[in-house]
Write a structure and sequence with these properties.
Elements lengths: L2 E4 L2 H12 L5 E6 L3 H9 L3 E6 L7 H6 L5 E7 L11 H10 L5 E5 L24 E6 L12 E4 L2 H10 L7 H12 L1 H24 L3 E2 L6 E5 L4 H10 L5 E2 L8 E5 L3 H16 L1
Parallel strand pairs: 2-3, 2-4, 4-5, 5-6
Antiparallel strand pairs: 1-7, 6-7, 8-9, 9-11, 10-11
Helix pairs in contact: 1-2
Length: 280
């Protein structure tokens, strides 16, 4: 009664927006953030209220300052995409105490399995202690099932009841459900996935540091690196070498690339391609 399954966690984001926003209601979110927050709010005829990051991290005080009588939802991503920054349990608790009782706090934890710092807030370490908190999780990242489109939300029973009333009856197909159940039982793969990610991050930080390239601290499966030059040009040149990374220009970070960790061979190929491009 406290779990809602979705066609990816973005399905649940849309359900929350359509289930709890009326015309002109507001939903507060960081800027930049996962695009589906804004899209879902707008399609529900709500108003997205954006709060710029502070030092590449979620500005919790800024979110509080934007709360009004029209606020119904606040979206938080932890760890944050695309910077990899996090919110500690202490920081979250202080924030939550300032949020009115009638405002829902949606905590998107798509990357939580990769966190190594024990001080980072993890809502499911103490689930359902606060009826305002909705936890979003996905099988797309650590479990490697992005193509199956399975996400889930854990929330107060009354919220779940509303979402189950308005969701499509067959929003997650039977093959995806079977894959998700199998993934939950396959702890060996999950642990290998997390271990490989951590080893990859350690390798990339070491190699990039030796190249004199600054990387943002991260608790996710990706990192952002500052090239001190046009990142889009570097992205385009690396693409010609068959290496796909992401320019952060569309997020307002013109000199940053974001790269996900891969296998050992893929990580080496990335470093080699980057060195080649930067020498030109």
């Amino acid at each position: 009664q406290n779990i809602v399954i979705g066609n990816g966690s973005d399905d649940i984001i849309a359900l929350l927006a359509h289930g709890f926003l009326n015309l002109g209601d507001e939903a507060i979110m960081p800027l930049p953030s996962f695009l589906m927050y804004e899209i879902s709010v707008k399609t529900a005829k709500g108003i997205p209220v954006m709060v710029p990051l502070t030092d590449f991290s979620t500005n919790l005080n800024g979110l509080i300052e934007k709360i009004s009588s029209k606020t119904k939802l606040i979206f938080i991503t932890n760890p944050f995409n695309p910077t990899g920054s996090t919110i500690t349990r202490e920081e979250f608790d202080k924030f939550a105490k300032k949020v009115p009782d009638d405002v829902m706090i949606v905590v998107d934890e798509a990357y939580i399995e990769f966190v190594r710092n024990n001080s980072v807030y993890n809502s499911l370490k103490d689930p359902l202690y606060d009826p305002r908190i909705v936890t979003l999780r996905t099988f797309s990242k650590a479990y490697g099932l992005a193509g199956f489109r399975v996400g889930y939300g854990i929330m107060d029973g009354q919220i779940a009841q509303i979402l189950n009333r308005i969701r499509q009856p067959f929003n997650v197909n039977s093959l995806a459900q079977a894959a998700a159940v199998a993934a939950l039982d396959d702890e060996v793969f999950l642990n290998k996935s997390i271990r490989t990610t951590h080893e990859g991050l350690d390798f990339l930080f070491a190699e990039l540091g030796a190249m004199g390239i600054y990387c943002l601290p991260t608790q996710s499966n990706f990192l952002m690196l500052d090239l001190k030059t046009d990142a889009t040009h570097v992205f385009e040149q690396m693409l010609k070498s068959g290496v796909i990374v992401r320019s952060m220009k569309s997020y307002g970070f013109d000199t940053f690339l974001r790269v996900n960790t891969g296998t050992k061979e893929e990580n080496i190929a990335f470093i080699q391609a980057l060195k080649k491009v930067l020498k030109k």
